[in-house]
Design goal:
eight-stranded parallel β-barrel; 14 helices; 44% helix; alpha/beta
Length: 395
């Protein structure tokens, strides 16, 4: 059985991040169709082979998350996808949830399913070469959302998944994503993120998950996609770390931020701003669309344009790696030329990098205890504050 801490250390290697190429068959087919590519099994395989065979990919990518279909397919040379990744020093990961489904009794909210049979599936994936896994919960912000019931349901599922992963010798990526859909403000996203993380870590601790052997994959704290509010990278970084710093225990193995549908350049700029501030845990990226969308647009399903897709991916990976190390990204004509990372220790040795973190208890004085009860108090307080704001503005 693979050592969990070793896997975490490899995933969180300096200057490297995780490539999320785990879209479901339906989602990937839709994206291929939108790009003018026939949504066939062969094209899905060819697209992902184009990604994982990008020259020099291992210089900026430590792991690649795959879906079940791709995990069992083979690249042109005959190796399985996990085998091909292992040959170039990249860890193979597997998405094990079966997607978000409507949560009974909570209109407009969802809970991620897929726990049935998960123990056996994880054992099989580990035997096929999986070093880590991923489970994504989706938390929506809206009128009366997220509810505490939705937070608890998703947090409980994440915790059971994480415990099963560690039992199988597979590192769990724990992904509670507060969606950026909607018109909510930066502050409301921050409050939803705080409540979500409170619920998740209460459940993780209740079931005995080793926090040093997980990678948390949270959203950045940003205004909603339909919000008129604009937030600078520095504002996003400070709001994000203020939310995480007082909730996420220091012993957590690592934090790999998701892009969440942000444009590639904005996600990278926000990542750089986050990385410039001190954190008690290693920080990296686990981007999907922010890395692969430019590659898909350049490739267009044409075999003789694989180089263009790989070049586009290499440029985005280099930019993200540069955001982590503080170095300039690769030149536009290079293929993943990434400068060696400079020595860092969780960002705390960066001169001049200072962040005044306001403890959650200073901002939300009703927090008096630890555990799940805090999450309930946090979200009730947030809803009360939102109601007051609507009343004060005559809405």
């Amino acid at each position: 059985m693979r050592d969990l801490n070793r896997t975490v250390a490899e995933l969180m290697a300096r200057g490297k991040g995780v490539l999320a190429a785990d879209e479901s068959i339906a989602t990937m087919s839709s994206r291929l169709a939108d790009a003018g590519v026939a949504p066939t099994g062969d094209n899905r395989r060819d697209y992902r082979e184009m990604l994982v065979t990008t020259p020099g990919l291992s210089q900026g990518v430590s792991g690649v998350i795959l879906c079940d279909e791709t995990f069992r397919q083979r690249v042109s040379g005959g190796a399985t996808f996990p085998g091909a990744l292992a040959d170039i020093g990249i860890l193979a990961g597997i998405k094990v949830d079966s997607g978000a489904k409507p949560l009974a009794g909570q209109p407009g909210e969802k809970v991620t399913e897929g726990l049935d049979g998960l123990r056996d599936r994880l054992a099989a994936y580990a035997a096929l070469g999986a070093s880590f896994a991923k489970w994504r919960a989706v938390i929506d912000i809206g009128d009366g959302r997220p509810s505490w019931r939705a937070l608890r349901a998703n947090a409980h599922a994440l915790a059971r998944y994480a415990a099963l992963c560690q039992e199988a010798g597979v590192v769990p990526i724990v992904e509670p994503e507060v969606l950026m859909d909607g018109a909510h403000t930066l502050d409301r996203c921050a409050r939803a993120t705080v409540a979500t993380l409170m619920a998740v870590f209460a459940e993780l601790q209740d079931v005995g998950v080793r926090l040093d052997a997980i990678v948390l994959k949270p959203n950045m704290v940003v205004p909603g996609a339909k919000s008129a509010e604009l937030a600078t990278p520095d504002e996003v970084a400070r709001a994000t770390l203020s939310a995480l710093h007082t909730i996420v225990p220091e012993e957590t193995g690592g934090v790999a931020f998701l892009s969440g549908g942000q444009p590639p350049e904005r996600a990278t700029a926000n990542l750089a701003a986050i990385r410039a501030l001190p954190t008690p845990w290693p920080v990296t990226f686990s981007f999907g669309r922010a890395l692969v969308d430019p590659a898909l647009a350049a490739w267009r399903g044409e075999p003789d344009r694989a180089w263009a897709g790989q070049r586009a991916l290499a440029q985005r990976v280099a930019a993200c790696s540069g955001a982590l190390t503080g170095a300039a990204a690769a030149a536009a004509g290079d293929v993943l030329t990434i400068p060696a990372p400079r020595p860092v220790n969780g960002g705390t040795d960066r001169p001049g990098a200072k962040l005044r973190l306001a403890p959650v208890r200073a901002k939300l004085p009703f927090l008096k205890t630890s555990g799940a009860a805090n999450g309930a108090r946090a979200w009730r307080h947030a809803h009360a504050a939102a109601a007051r704001q609507r009343r004060d503005h005559g809405r």
